[in-house]
Design brief:
single chain, about 150 residues, mainly beta, 8-stranded antiparallel β-sheet, 3-stranded antiparallel β-sheet, 1 helix, about 40% strand, globular
Amino acid sequence: MFPGAADAGAASTLVPTRFVWPHGGRHVHLCGSFTRWQETLPMAPVEGSSSIYAVVWNLPPGYHQYKFIVDGEWRHDESQPFMPDPLGNVNNWLLVRDSDPNAHPPSAAAAAAASPAATGPSGLTGAAPSLQERGGIGEGGGWVRIWMWTGLR
């Protein structure tokens, strides 16, 4: 069993994380380091759109790499942070931080003031990346905190 499928007792160490594929397709799945690149997670069309797919999965804090499988083809999303892996594959990635289920979405000023100075994993390309907090309302109404590098290419 992989981390997203952990039982409720371990849920306090997992962070609900939303993945979005906004580029269409008929059948879209998610696969990544958090599934040991073995299992795929089916993504569902977002209500009101036939070209945007999403899935929420519980991830432990840390760096995660992932890819989308769109109509049987492995793809990464160039509008999200990406990097090559040691085998030369290009994967999307994100940094998941611990979340506080009682926290409310921070104001832009508070988020900027609280942003930690950070360095990314080796292999990142691009000039002057910045760490940006992204979040939203997760399942059950709790605020989800996701830190992602932006400005990478």
